[in-house]
Amino acid sequence: MKIRKADINGSQGWCLDYGKRDGKRRRVYFHSEQEAKKALRDAEKEAVAVGRRWAYLAAEQRADVVAILGEIDAAGLTLRKVWDGFRNGAAVPVESKPLSVAITELVKTKITANRRPAYVASLEQYLCRWSKGQETKPVAAVKLEEIEAFLNGLPSMSSRATAINRLSTLFSFAVRRGWRTDNPCRRLERPHVENGTPSILTVDEAKKVLQFTRAKMPRFLPWLTLALFAGIRPEEADKMTWEAIDLDRGIAKVDALTAKVRNRRNVHLKPVAIEWLRKGGDLPLPHVTRRRCLRKLRDVLGWPVWKKDVLRHSAASYWLASDPDAPRIAMELGNSPGVLFKHYRELVSDEQAKQFWALTPKKVGRK
Q1: For residue range 289-336, what is the model confidence (pLDDT) as tens digits?
Q2: Which pTM does this prediction carry?
Q3: Which domains are seen in the chain, by residue range?
Protein backbone atom coordinates (compact mmCIF):
# COMPACT_ATOMS: atom_id res chain seq x y z
CA MET A 1 0.00 0.00 0.00
CA LYS A 2 1.26 3.48 -0.81
CA ILE A 3 0.16 7.10 -1.13
CA ARG A 4 0.84 9.28 -4.14
CA LYS A 5 -0.30 12.58 -5.55
CA ALA A 6 -3.23 12.43 -7.95
CA ASP A 7 -5.44 14.66 -10.06
CA ILE A 8 -9.10 14.79 -8.95
CA ASN A 9 -11.28 16.54 -11.52
CA GLY A 10 -8.53 19.05 -12.25
CA SER A 11 -7.60 19.66 -8.61
CA GLN A 12 -4.60 18.46 -6.59
CA GLY A 13 -5.42 15.36 -4.51
CA TRP A 14 -4.03 12.16 -3.08
CA CYS A 15 -4.49 8.49 -3.93
CA LEU A 16 -4.16 5.50 -1.61
CA ASP A 17 -3.32 2.41 -3.68
CA TYR A 18 -4.28 -0.76 -1.79
CA GLY A 19 -2.86 -3.03 -4.50
CA LYS A 20 -4.84 -5.88 -6.05
CA ARG A 21 -7.76 -7.46 -4.23
CA ASP A 22 -9.81 -10.26 -5.80
CA GLY A 23 -7.93 -9.71 -9.04
CA LYS A 24 -8.77 -5.99 -9.25
CA ARG A 25 -6.65 -3.01 -8.28
CA ARG A 26 -8.30 -0.93 -5.54
CA ARG A 27 -7.61 2.81 -5.26
CA VAL A 28 -9.23 5.44 -3.02
CA TYR A 29 -8.88 9.18 -3.63
CA PHE A 30 -8.71 11.97 -1.04
CA HIS A 31 -8.65 15.77 -1.26
CA SER A 32 -6.01 16.14 1.48
CA GLU A 33 -2.80 14.36 2.33
CA GLN A 34 -3.93 14.12 5.96
CA GLU A 35 -7.03 12.12 5.01
CA ALA A 36 -4.97 9.80 2.82
CA LYS A 37 -2.40 9.17 5.59
CA LYS A 38 -5.15 8.41 8.09
CA ALA A 39 -6.68 5.87 5.70
CA LEU A 40 -3.25 4.32 5.21
CA ARG A 41 -2.75 3.98 8.98
CA ASP A 42 -6.17 2.35 9.35
CA ALA A 43 -5.38 -0.07 6.53
CA GLU A 44 -2.03 -0.97 8.09
CA LYS A 45 -3.72 -1.60 11.44
CA GLU A 46 -6.22 -3.86 9.69
CA ALA A 47 -3.38 -5.74 8.00
CA VAL A 48 -1.67 -6.24 11.36
CA ALA A 49 -4.91 -7.52 12.85
CA VAL A 50 -5.35 -9.94 9.95
CA GLY A 51 -1.77 -11.11 10.45
CA ARG A 52 -2.46 -11.81 14.11
CA ARG A 53 -5.61 -13.77 13.25
CA TRP A 54 -3.62 -15.77 10.69
CA ALA A 55 -0.91 -16.49 13.23
CA TYR A 56 -3.46 -17.72 15.78
CA LEU A 57 -4.90 -20.25 13.31
CA ALA A 58 -3.78 -23.84 13.74
CA ALA A 59 -1.37 -25.13 11.08
CA GLU A 60 -4.06 -27.46 9.71
CA GLN A 61 -6.46 -24.54 9.26
CA ARG A 62 -3.85 -22.44 7.48
CA ALA A 63 -3.14 -25.36 5.14
CA ASP A 64 -6.86 -25.70 4.40
CA VAL A 65 -7.15 -21.98 3.62
CA VAL A 66 -4.22 -22.10 1.20
CA ALA A 67 -5.55 -25.24 -0.51
CA ILE A 68 -9.07 -23.81 -0.86
CA LEU A 69 -7.77 -20.53 -2.26
CA GLY A 70 -5.81 -22.52 -4.83
CA GLU A 71 -8.93 -24.45 -5.86
CA ILE A 72 -10.94 -21.24 -6.13
CA ASP A 73 -8.27 -19.68 -8.34
CA ALA A 74 -8.08 -22.79 -10.53
CA ALA A 75 -11.86 -22.59 -11.00
CA GLY A 76 -11.52 -19.07 -12.33
CA LEU A 77 -13.26 -17.55 -9.31
CA THR A 78 -12.33 -15.31 -6.41
CA LEU A 79 -12.99 -15.73 -2.73
CA ARG A 80 -15.34 -12.75 -2.85
CA LYS A 81 -17.33 -14.27 -5.73
CA VAL A 82 -17.68 -17.58 -3.91
CA TRP A 83 -18.81 -15.91 -0.70
CA ASP A 84 -21.24 -13.54 -2.44
CA GLY A 85 -22.64 -16.47 -4.40
CA PHE A 86 -23.13 -18.47 -1.20
CA ARG A 87 -24.93 -15.56 0.50
CA ASN A 88 -27.17 -15.06 -2.53
CA GLY A 89 -28.04 -18.73 -2.79
CA ALA A 90 -26.19 -19.22 -6.08
CA ALA A 91 -24.79 -22.61 -6.95
CA VAL A 92 -21.03 -22.84 -6.54
CA PRO A 93 -19.30 -25.56 -8.55
CA VAL A 94 -18.13 -28.36 -6.31
CA GLU A 95 -15.94 -29.80 -9.03
CA SER A 96 -14.78 -28.48 -12.38
CA LYS A 97 -13.84 -30.65 -15.33
CA PRO A 98 -10.96 -30.25 -17.79
CA LEU A 99 -11.97 -28.79 -21.14
CA SER A 100 -11.30 -32.10 -22.93
CA VAL A 101 -13.66 -33.96 -20.59
CA ALA A 102 -16.32 -31.24 -20.78
CA ILE A 103 -16.26 -31.31 -24.59
CA THR A 104 -16.47 -35.12 -24.67
CA GLU A 105 -19.43 -35.12 -22.28
CA LEU A 106 -21.16 -32.37 -24.29
CA VAL A 107 -20.81 -34.36 -27.51
CA LYS A 108 -22.22 -37.50 -25.84
CA THR A 109 -25.20 -35.51 -24.61
CA LYS A 110 -25.89 -34.07 -28.07
CA ILE A 111 -25.76 -37.53 -29.63
CA THR A 112 -28.14 -38.88 -26.98
CA ALA A 113 -30.49 -35.96 -27.67
CA ASN A 114 -30.63 -37.09 -31.34
CA ARG A 115 -29.02 -33.98 -32.75
CA ARG A 116 -27.92 -34.10 -36.38
CA PRO A 117 -24.62 -36.01 -36.83
CA ALA A 118 -23.27 -33.21 -39.04
CA TYR A 119 -24.02 -30.62 -36.34
CA VAL A 120 -22.45 -32.72 -33.59
CA ALA A 121 -19.33 -33.40 -35.67
CA SER A 122 -18.97 -29.71 -36.52
CA LEU A 123 -19.43 -28.68 -32.88
CA GLU A 124 -16.87 -31.20 -31.64
CA GLN A 125 -14.34 -30.25 -34.32
CA TYR A 126 -14.67 -26.54 -33.54
CA LEU A 127 -14.37 -26.91 -29.76
CA CYS A 128 -11.42 -29.29 -30.00
CA ARG A 129 -9.63 -26.88 -32.31
CA TRP A 130 -10.35 -23.96 -29.96
CA SER A 131 -9.17 -25.86 -26.83
CA LYS A 132 -5.99 -27.23 -28.40
CA GLY A 133 -3.07 -26.71 -26.02
CA GLN A 134 -5.30 -26.17 -23.00
CA GLU A 135 -7.15 -29.48 -22.84
CA THR A 136 -6.35 -30.01 -19.14
CA LYS A 137 -7.49 -26.54 -18.11
CA PRO A 138 -10.65 -26.59 -15.93
CA VAL A 139 -13.67 -25.33 -17.84
CA ALA A 140 -14.41 -23.03 -14.89
CA ALA A 141 -11.00 -21.38 -15.26
CA VAL A 142 -11.70 -19.95 -18.72
CA LYS A 143 -12.05 -16.20 -18.32
CA LEU A 144 -14.00 -13.64 -20.31
CA GLU A 145 -10.78 -11.84 -21.25
CA GLU A 146 -9.41 -15.02 -22.84
CA ILE A 147 -12.53 -15.49 -24.93
CA GLU A 148 -12.45 -11.85 -26.05
CA ALA A 149 -8.79 -12.20 -27.06
CA PHE A 150 -9.68 -15.28 -29.14
CA LEU A 151 -12.60 -13.49 -30.81
CA ASN A 152 -10.47 -10.45 -31.61
CA GLY A 153 -8.17 -12.69 -33.64
CA LEU A 154 -10.95 -13.92 -35.94
CA PRO A 155 -11.17 -12.49 -39.46
CA SER A 156 -14.86 -11.53 -39.74
CA MET A 157 -18.05 -10.72 -37.86
CA SER A 158 -19.58 -13.94 -39.17
CA SER A 159 -16.76 -16.06 -37.74
CA ARG A 160 -17.05 -14.20 -34.43
CA ALA A 161 -20.78 -14.95 -34.28
CA THR A 162 -20.13 -18.63 -35.00
CA ALA A 163 -17.46 -18.79 -32.30
CA ILE A 164 -19.72 -17.22 -29.68
CA ASN A 165 -22.51 -19.69 -30.49
CA ARG A 166 -20.18 -22.70 -30.27
CA LEU A 167 -18.47 -21.60 -27.05
CA SER A 168 -21.77 -20.58 -25.47
CA THR A 169 -23.08 -24.10 -26.07
CA LEU A 170 -20.12 -25.52 -24.14
CA PHE A 171 -20.34 -23.10 -21.21
CA SER A 172 -24.12 -23.41 -20.87
CA PHE A 173 -23.64 -27.17 -20.67
CA ALA A 174 -20.94 -26.70 -18.01
CA VAL A 175 -23.29 -24.51 -15.96
CA ARG A 176 -26.04 -27.14 -16.14
CA ARG A 177 -23.59 -29.79 -14.96
CA GLY A 178 -22.39 -27.58 -12.09
CA TRP A 179 -18.85 -27.27 -13.45
CA ARG A 180 -18.93 -23.48 -13.45
CA THR A 181 -21.29 -20.79 -12.19
CA ASP A 182 -21.74 -18.68 -15.31
CA ASN A 183 -21.69 -18.61 -19.09
CA PRO A 184 -19.17 -15.86 -19.94
CA CYS A 185 -20.47 -15.62 -23.51
CA ARG A 186 -23.63 -13.98 -22.18
CA ARG A 187 -21.53 -10.97 -21.20
CA LEU A 188 -20.12 -10.55 -24.70
CA GLU A 189 -21.29 -7.93 -27.17
CA ARG A 190 -22.86 -9.89 -30.01
CA PRO A 191 -21.49 -8.86 -33.42
CA HIS A 192 -23.85 -7.54 -36.07
CA VAL A 193 -23.45 -9.60 -39.23
CA GLU A 194 -24.31 -7.87 -42.48
CA ASN A 195 -26.05 -10.15 -44.98
CA GLY A 196 -24.48 -9.61 -48.37
CA THR A 197 -26.23 -9.98 -51.69
CA PRO A 198 -26.85 -13.69 -52.36
CA SER A 199 -24.99 -15.20 -55.29
CA ILE A 200 -27.10 -16.78 -58.03
CA LEU A 201 -26.46 -18.33 -61.41
CA THR A 202 -27.28 -16.22 -64.43
CA VAL A 203 -29.42 -17.88 -67.10
CA ASP A 204 -26.33 -18.44 -69.24
CA GLU A 205 -24.41 -19.95 -66.31
CA ALA A 206 -27.31 -22.27 -65.47
CA LYS A 207 -27.42 -23.37 -69.10
CA LYS A 208 -23.68 -24.03 -69.14
CA VAL A 209 -23.94 -26.08 -65.92
CA LEU A 210 -26.77 -28.18 -67.28
CA GLN A 211 -25.01 -28.78 -70.61
CA PHE A 212 -21.79 -29.91 -68.95
CA THR A 213 -23.56 -32.17 -66.43
CA ARG A 214 -25.66 -33.79 -69.13
CA ALA A 215 -22.60 -34.50 -71.29
CA LYS A 216 -19.94 -35.33 -68.71
CA MET A 217 -21.67 -36.21 -65.42
CA PRO A 218 -25.15 -37.61 -66.19
CA ARG A 219 -25.36 -39.43 -62.86
CA PHE A 220 -25.28 -35.98 -61.17
CA LEU A 221 -28.31 -34.67 -63.10
CA PRO A 222 -31.08 -35.50 -60.58
CA TRP A 223 -29.16 -34.00 -57.64
CA LEU A 224 -28.46 -30.85 -59.65
CA THR A 225 -32.09 -30.64 -60.76
CA LEU A 226 -33.45 -30.89 -57.22
CA ALA A 227 -31.08 -28.17 -56.01
CA LEU A 228 -31.32 -25.80 -58.99
CA PHE A 229 -34.99 -26.08 -59.95
CA ALA A 230 -36.60 -27.13 -56.64
CA GLY A 231 -34.39 -25.28 -54.14
CA ILE A 232 -33.76 -28.41 -52.08
CA ARG A 233 -30.85 -27.99 -49.65
CA PRO A 234 -27.61 -29.84 -50.50
CA GLU A 235 -27.82 -31.92 -47.31
CA GLU A 236 -31.42 -32.82 -48.13
CA ALA A 237 -30.65 -33.65 -51.76
CA ASP A 238 -27.84 -35.95 -50.60
CA LYS A 239 -30.42 -38.18 -48.91
CA MET A 240 -33.15 -38.08 -51.55
CA THR A 241 -34.09 -41.38 -53.20
CA TRP A 242 -36.10 -42.04 -56.33
CA GLU A 243 -38.83 -43.49 -54.10
CA ALA A 244 -39.35 -39.98 -52.66
CA ILE A 245 -40.04 -38.51 -56.11
CA ASP A 246 -43.43 -38.88 -57.83
CA LEU A 247 -42.94 -37.61 -61.38
CA ASP A 248 -46.54 -38.30 -62.36
CA ARG A 249 -47.83 -36.03 -59.60
CA GLY A 250 -44.83 -33.71 -59.81
CA ILE A 251 -43.90 -33.99 -56.12
CA ALA A 252 -40.61 -34.49 -54.28
CA LYS A 253 -41.11 -35.62 -50.68
CA VAL A 254 -38.61 -34.35 -48.13
CA ASP A 255 -39.22 -36.39 -44.98
CA ALA A 256 -38.56 -35.25 -41.43
CA LEU A 257 -35.35 -37.22 -41.09
CA THR A 258 -33.98 -35.63 -44.27
CA ALA A 259 -35.18 -32.04 -43.73
CA LYS A 260 -32.88 -29.59 -41.99
CA VAL A 261 -35.59 -28.39 -39.60
CA ARG A 262 -37.06 -31.90 -39.24
CA ASN A 263 -40.41 -30.93 -40.71
CA ARG A 264 -41.79 -33.09 -43.49
CA ARG A 265 -42.72 -31.17 -46.64
CA ASN A 266 -43.71 -31.75 -50.24
CA VAL A 267 -42.00 -29.75 -52.96
CA HIS A 268 -44.12 -29.27 -56.06
CA LEU A 269 -41.84 -29.66 -59.05
CA LYS A 270 -41.82 -27.23 -61.94
CA PRO A 271 -42.32 -28.76 -65.42
CA VAL A 272 -38.66 -28.09 -66.27
CA ALA A 273 -37.57 -30.06 -63.19
CA ILE A 274 -39.77 -33.01 -64.13
CA GLU A 275 -38.28 -33.10 -67.64
CA TRP A 276 -34.73 -33.15 -66.32
CA LEU A 277 -35.53 -35.79 -63.68
CA ARG A 278 -36.92 -38.07 -66.39
CA LYS A 279 -33.39 -38.18 -67.83
CA GLY A 280 -32.42 -40.38 -64.87
CA GLY A 281 -29.23 -40.47 -62.84
CA ASP A 282 -28.17 -41.53 -59.36
CA LEU A 283 -30.24 -40.98 -56.22
CA PRO A 284 -29.07 -40.99 -53.55
CA LEU A 285 -25.71 -39.62 -54.59
CA PRO A 286 -22.63 -40.27 -52.43
CA HIS A 287 -21.45 -37.12 -50.69
CA VAL A 288 -17.94 -37.52 -52.08
CA THR A 289 -19.36 -37.72 -55.61
CA ARG A 290 -21.42 -34.59 -55.08
CA ARG A 291 -18.36 -32.64 -53.94
CA ARG A 292 -16.32 -33.86 -56.91
CA CYS A 293 -19.06 -32.84 -59.36
CA LEU A 294 -19.42 -29.38 -57.83
CA ARG A 295 -15.67 -28.85 -58.12
CA LYS A 296 -15.90 -29.64 -61.83
CA LEU A 297 -18.78 -27.20 -62.25
CA ARG A 298 -16.74 -24.58 -60.39
CA ASP A 299 -14.00 -25.00 -62.98
CA VAL A 300 -16.48 -24.86 -65.85
CA LEU A 301 -17.76 -21.52 -64.58
CA GLY A 302 -14.24 -20.24 -63.91
CA TRP A 303 -14.86 -19.63 -60.21
CA PRO A 304 -12.01 -19.82 -57.66
CA VAL A 305 -14.39 -21.49 -55.17
CA TRP A 306 -17.91 -22.88 -55.31
CA LYS A 307 -20.32 -20.23 -54.00
CA LYS A 308 -22.22 -21.41 -50.93
CA ASP A 309 -25.91 -22.26 -51.55
CA VAL A 310 -25.77 -20.71 -55.04
CA LEU A 311 -28.16 -23.32 -56.47
CA ARG A 312 -30.76 -22.84 -53.72
CA HIS A 313 -30.35 -19.04 -53.96
CA SER A 314 -30.96 -19.27 -57.69
CA ALA A 315 -34.11 -21.36 -57.33
CA ALA A 316 -35.57 -19.03 -54.68
CA SER A 317 -34.73 -15.84 -56.58
CA TYR A 318 -36.15 -16.97 -59.93
CA TRP A 319 -39.15 -18.49 -58.15
CA LEU A 320 -39.97 -15.21 -56.40
CA ALA A 321 -39.59 -13.30 -59.66
CA SER A 322 -42.18 -15.51 -61.37
CA ASP A 323 -44.62 -16.03 -58.47
CA PRO A 324 -45.71 -13.34 -55.95
CA ASP A 325 -46.91 -15.90 -53.37
CA ALA A 326 -43.91 -15.65 -51.03
CA PRO A 327 -45.48 -17.60 -48.10
CA ARG A 328 -46.19 -20.58 -50.35
CA ILE A 329 -42.69 -20.50 -51.85
CA ALA A 330 -41.19 -20.28 -48.36
CA MET A 331 -43.21 -23.34 -47.33
CA GLU A 332 -41.95 -25.26 -50.37
CA LEU A 333 -38.37 -24.32 -49.52
CA GLY A 334 -38.80 -25.15 -45.84
CA ASN A 335 -38.30 -21.58 -44.60
CA SER A 336 -40.30 -18.71 -43.16
CA PRO A 337 -41.09 -15.78 -45.51
CA GLY A 338 -38.78 -13.60 -43.43
CA VAL A 339 -35.83 -15.95 -43.90
CA LEU A 340 -36.68 -16.26 -47.59
CA PHE A 341 -36.44 -12.51 -48.19
CA LYS A 342 -33.42 -12.09 -45.90
CA HIS A 343 -31.19 -14.86 -47.23
CA TYR A 344 -32.44 -16.30 -50.51
CA ARG A 345 -33.53 -13.48 -52.75
CA GLU A 346 -31.70 -11.64 -55.49
CA LEU A 347 -33.69 -9.33 -57.73
CA VAL A 348 -34.16 -10.72 -61.24
CA SER A 349 -36.44 -9.52 -64.01
CA ASP A 350 -39.58 -11.23 -65.21
CA GLU A 351 -37.86 -11.96 -68.51
CA GLN A 352 -34.86 -13.57 -66.82
CA ALA A 353 -37.17 -15.73 -64.70
CA LYS A 354 -39.06 -16.79 -67.83
CA GLN A 355 -35.80 -17.79 -69.53
CA PHE A 356 -34.61 -19.69 -66.43
CA TRP A 357 -37.73 -21.82 -66.11
CA ALA A 358 -37.55 -22.55 -69.85
CA LEU A 359 -34.15 -24.30 -69.57
CA THR A 360 -35.56 -27.69 -70.58
CA PRO A 361 -33.37 -30.47 -71.97
CA LYS A 362 -34.53 -29.57 -75.48
CA LYS A 363 -33.78 -25.87 -74.99
CA VAL A 364 -30.37 -26.50 -73.40
CA GLY A 365 -29.32 -29.14 -75.89
CA ARG A 366 -25.99 -30.94 -75.69
CA LYS A 367 -22.62 -29.33 -75.36
Answers
A1: 999 999 999 999 999 999 888 999 899 889 988 887 878 888 888 876
A2: 0.58
A3: 1-56 (no CATH), 99-187 (1.10.150), 203-364 (1.10.443.10)
